[in-house]
Amino acid sequence: MKTLPRVLHGLVRALQIVALAAMAYALAAPPPILVTLGPQRVVHTTNPKIGVHTRLTDEVEEWKIKKNFEMVREMGASWVVEYFPWEYLEPEEGSFDWTHADIVVNHARRQGLTVIARLGFVPRWARPRDSVTSYLDEARYPAFALFVTEFARHFAGRVQHLVIWNEPNLNFEWGYRGVDPAAYARMLQVVYPRVKEVEPSVQILAGALAPTLAPAGSVDAMSDLDYLQAMYAAGARDYFDALAAHAYGWTAPADDAPSPRRVNFRRTELLREIMVQNGDAHKRIFITEGGWNDHPRWTKAVHPAERITYTLRAYELCKNWEWVEACALWAFRYPFPAQSYLDYFTFVTPEFDPKPIYYEVQKYATK
Amino acid sequence: MKFKNTPRNRNQVSSRNLVSIGTLPLVIVALGVCAWLAFVLWFPKPPPKPDATWLRILETGVFRVGIDPSFPPFESDDAQGNLYGLDIALANELVRVWSLNSETPIRVEFVYTGFDGLYDALKTRQFDAIISALPYDPKKTEDVLFSHSYFNAGPHLIVRAEDTTTKTYYDVMGKAVGVELGSTGDAFARRWQRRLKLDLRTYHTPADALRALRWGEVDAVFADLIAFNDFARREGGVKPVGSALVNEFIVIAVRKDAPTLLGQINAVIDAMKQDGRLEQLYAEWLQ
Predict the structure, then answer these.
(1) Cβ contact (<8 Å) for A356 and B115?
(2) Res A223 pLDDT > 50
(3) Global model pTM greater than 0.80
(4) N or C, where is chain B less crowded by C-beta within 10 Å?
C-alpha cells in the first residue's frame, strides 16, 4: 500500500519533467511559417505581353514562391511559364500529387499572373530502365496524354495553356535518340484529342523548339525551321492551338534581321512564316523562353547594357507583333546559383536582389 | 533532533533519488569527454599526407595551370597562340620564385579550358591550379582552396583628377553619378539610391560614363579599375578614390588536397604585394 503513492509520486514528477521539457522546446522552436495567398492582385503594365520563365520546380519554401510572383508582378510582367515535371506529379502510375503545383499556380494567380505550364520529364515507371527523363517511347504516349489530361482537369480554370514537351528538335531532349518530327507529331495527335475531350478551352502549345543552326543530318539537333515544317508534313496542324517558341538573341540586337542562317530574336518571324505557309495564320505564337545573357566570359553573352537595351526592345517588338500572345524570357530567378553562365540570364538573384535589368523592365512596363 | 521517517521525509529521500538519476547522464557525458580527451592525447593525429601535387611539381618541374585565354587584359592569345596578360605574368612569376629554391627549374604549362569548365577540370586533375581572372566564390570553398586575392575587380569611386573634396561615396550624396548600365557599379548605386539620393545616370559603356565625368556631366562614376585604367591611359583626367565599393576578389584556386601548393602561391602573392612587384604587374598589364 505504501509503495503505490511513491510510484504515483514518481510518475507525477516524471510527467512534470516531460511537460517542462515540452514547454522549453515549444519556446525554443521557431514558430511555423505562415504564408497566406493574400489579397487578389492585378498586374499594372503598359505592355501586357511581358512575361518571364520562372524556375520554381525546385523551390521548397512557400514564401519564396510567393515572393517570386510578387516581384514578377511588380516588374510589370503578366505571364509566367513554369515547368511541371510529370515524374513529380505522377510518381506512380495513376497516383497524382498536386501539392507543390497547387501552391505555385495559386500564388501566381493571386498575383494576377497567367500561368503557361510546360509539361515533360518522363517518370521512371513510364520509360525503360537506364533511359533518361526525356525518353518516351511511342507505346507510352497514351500514359503521357492521360497525365496531361489529368493536369488540365485538375487546373481547369486556373491553367489554360499547356506546352507539350520541350525542344524536341534536340537529341538530348528527345531521349538521346535521333530527333523525329513525325514522332513528335504523333505525340500531339495522341495528347490533343484526349485533353480537348475533357477541357476543350485549354490551349495546347506545340513546339518550344530550340533555335539552332544544326546542319542537315546532324546527330545532335535539327534546325527548328526544318523541324516545324516536318511537323506540318507529318500532319501536326490540327493537333495544336498555338506554337511555343524559344527566341534567344545570343549576341545580336533584338532588331537584327531574321535569317535561316542566324540565331537571333527575330528568328521567331521565320517560324511564323512557316505557320502561315501551312495555313496556320490564325494561330498565335507564345515565346516561352528567350532573351540575352550578360556573363563576362561566355562567348554568346553581351554586355549588361546591351542585354537591357535588347530585352526592352524585344518586349516592344512583341507588343507590336499581333501574332504573338506572350513574350516570356528566360529566366526570372533561380532557386540556387547555377554556378555557370546560366546565372547571367536572370532578372533577380537567388537572394531576391533585383538586378539593374529588373528595374529597367519595371521602368519600361510602368512608365 | 531525532530523524523521523515521516511520509514528508520519505518524499525528500525520493527527490534525492531523482536528483541522482538526473546526474547520471551528466556523469556519462563527463566520462565520454574524458575518454575522448584521453584518446586525443594518447593517440595523436597522424601527420598530414604530403601534398602530392606540390611534390609532383617539384619533381617534374612543371606547374600546370588551367586558363581560358579570352579575357584581356588578364589572359589572351595572339594569332600564333602566344599567351599574354596579367595572369600569364603572375604564373611565370610564381614559378620563377619557386625555381630559386628548387633543384629542378619549374616552368608553367597552360591548359586551355572554357571558363565554365575550369572547376571541373581542376577537380579531375587536368591541371594544378586555376589562374584565369577567377572571382572568389564563397560557395565553392567546400570544393577548392582559394589563394589570397591579387586583384579587386569591384567598382570604385572615380572622380575628376582635380577633385580633392570627394573621399567616399557618402560625399556624392545628392550629386550626379554615372554608371555603366547593368554593371556592378549600377547595381551598387541602385541599392544606395534611396539613402544617397543620387542623380543616377546610366551610360552604355564605362568609357562613356568616364567621359561624362571628365566633361562635367556627372560628379562621380562607379566603375571598375580595369575600365578606369583603360580610360585613364587613353584620355586621362580622372582618378580613383578609396577602396572598392563592392569587393570582387580575383584569386587562384587549387584542389583541397594541395595545401602546400596553396601556401607556396600565397607566399609569393604576399611578397609581391609587399615589395611592389604586384603593382608593377598592374602597371604593365592594366594601364
Answers:
(1) no
(2) yes
(3) yes
(4) N
